[in-house]
Write a structure and sequence with these properties.
With 107 residues, the chain is mainly alpha-helical. The chain has two domains: 30 residues; 73 residues, SMc04008-like (SMc04008-like fold). It contains six helices and no strands. Helix 2 runs parallel beside helix 6 and helix 3 crosses helix 4. The longest helix has 21 residues. The protein is globular and about 50 Å long.
Length: 107
Amino acid sequence: MTNDKLDEGTRTAIEAAVFRRLLRHLDAHKEVQNIDLMITADFCRNCLSKWYVAAAAENGQNMDLADAHQAVYGMSYAAWKAHHQTPASQEQLDALAARQADKSAGE
């Protein structure tokens, strides 16, 4: 069954389940740093948090970034950084800079 054959409620329920599974997957892989996600996929947990705030606003809800961080990280951003974030290596910083330069060149 293709996505266009699903009714809106079913599609939304499936998408919500996929999003929750993505959050669980990211939570199970805290060793994957946000910078690594940015280098390889051009998004990270912080992006998801910002998208969460934007989607809430699009649906008439007021959500601040701290609440979105809690939803995405399962804890405050400060707590996640303190417990799970490692300093970026020069190699990671260089790779991110190259990714961003490639992205800018394509615009």
